[in-house]
Amino acid sequence: MLMAHPAVLSNLIEQYETLRALNAGEGGPDVQRRMDDLAYTLCVSTGTRDIDTALIAARHRLPGARPEDDSLLPA
Question: From which domain of life does this come (predicted)?
Answer without folding.
Answer: Bacteria
